[in-house]
Amino acid sequence: GTQFPSACATNGRYRLKANDDWTNGFWTGMLWLAYEWSHQEKFRLLAMENIDSFQQRLEEHFVLDHHDIGFLYSLSAGAGYKITGDERCKQEVLAAAEVLSARFQENGSFIQAWGHYGDPKEYRLIIDSLMNLP
Fold this sequence. Notes:
By secondary structure, the protein is mainly α. It has a two-stranded antiparallel sheet. The chain has a two-stranded antiparallel sheet with strand order 3-4. The protein starts with a strand and ends in a 23-residue tail after the last strand. It contains 4 helices and 4 strands; from the N terminus they run ββααααββ. It is globular and about 50 Å long. InterPro entries: 6-hairpin_glycosidase_sf (IPR008928), 6hp_glycosidase-like_sf (IPR012341), Glyco_hydro_88 (IPR010905), UG_Glycosaminoglycan_Hydrolase (IPR052369). One of its GO terms (molecular function) is chondroitin hydrolase activity.
């Protein structure tokens, strides 16, 4: 399947891993930047392959119990839609927005940062959540 570089290097090398981290959208965003700068089709194809893995992540609700959904989907599917106009990207980013908005806590009017929604031990916000809102 699609692999992403880990968030940090070990001995100068980035280990490849599955789409299971909050930072993976940054990689796809860099692919979109490379495509915009170079117009090389290989970058668009890689970014779209990544977007397929983000779709699967949405379908399985895989590691999405956090506020970083914005980082994952704005920089991947959101950028893909802005750059290519691909309707599939648009639908994916809208579905991700629904998942993120479901973390909204009425009492306090904030997006719950982490954990199972409604768990009193996880009832917290962090300023970082604002960076995840388009």
